[in-house]
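Lab meeting prep.
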Amino acid sequence: MRNKQEMLDLIISTAKNDDRIRAVIMNGSRVNPNAPRDVFQDYDIVYFVTDIASFTDDHSWIDCFGERMILQMPEEMDTPHLKDRTYFAYLIQFMDGNRIDLTLFSIDKLDKYEDDSLTVLLLDKDGLFDPFPAPSDSGYLPQPPTAKQFADSCNEFWWVSLYVAKGLWRQQLTYAKYMMDNIVRGELIKMLTWYVGSKTEFSHNLGGYGKFLQTFLEPDLWVMLENTYADADYENNWDALLIMTELFRRTANEVAEHHGYNYPHKDDERVSNHILYVRDLPHDATDMDLPKKTLFS
């Protein structure tokens, strides 16, 4: 596996030897002083170029970076025949274990380039950029929710939890798992991010998809989160759903209290009771003889 210096020398020398490439920056975890270091870190590189089409007309120019395992070009998937591009990305996994996420960005569209707090300038032939501040993950810190964002998250969590219960009762595994593991879990991770943020004054980057949550969650809450990841067994998925609702309830109430927002206790109560009822509903039921009294009353 080529080491970091070898990779950077290759990235920079390729740019130096190509007049179409006028500047090079690196961003992402490799320039983040707080990111853990491991062998899977990729090289997030941007080449600022004079003519994107001259590169994309013949993709073989990327062969200089090494033997590829697999290549993805997202823009070719979406709009393969578009010529007037602002940017074009090559996502390249190499056989030696290295990976480069290389984006070509047109210098004609430089005003559309979005600043990234995790940026290091590697090459600038024309003085296109002012000096960047020292890289930090300040641009990746979670933001406090507005009252509407909080309310919308609660509504989405409880609304789609009904879909999960319906799918589990019908024994439609793929439907139920999709609703639980994509939508409901997404709102749970969002709430856990706000919960940790409220405890830490939103001063820590929790990573994409909450990948650093374990560092900041109390051990009992982390164990609850672990227990929301169920297998294909229906009873285990029912248990996981109920744990998700309890974890969401506990953390959302604290977020609401911290920010002075209203938690939808009635929605929580009604949906939670319905989930418990549906779990016990016989599979040959032809209607819902809903009880007048609920367990949470």
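Slide two material, second protein:
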Amino acid sequence: MDSQHIERLQNTPVFGALSADALEFLLARTRLVAVPLGAYFFREGEPARSMFVLEAGRAAVVKGWQGAELLMREFDAGDCFGEMALMDLFPRSASIRALADCSAIELTADDLLRLYEHDLEQFTLVQMNIGREVCRRLRATDELLFRARMGDLADSAPAPFRAT
């Protein structure tokens, strides 16, 4: 793995502050997945086994509602998704659909276990980073819920999904 790739990953929320050695160790066995425009990384309700760090492309979080898919948010290169899979062991709460040809690193609980056994401090940093990302999203969701209860969702209501 070249130094530019490692540096780029160190600037992502999940891998921030990880050492180059820890990143190389962690990523030695992870899979790089390619998902073409319009295809899904995963679908709502499926068993959750891994999270993804988007390296290239754009993806959308979509949620089913009354027979339609609603766009919840979009992700760009550097963003992660599916991280709840490594924390709560529940089925997927939403679908992730590629808005462009995408490539992403797939990170499983086994990958994290290997890092735990290899370098506890670096494992702890990854876990803290994942926790921080979940907390940021929870704060944003709390704000949306508050605004919905106050009747002020005009700018943030989910829109029907339309692939571009």
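Talking points for slide two:
The mean pLDDT is 90.
The first helix runs from residue 3 to 10.
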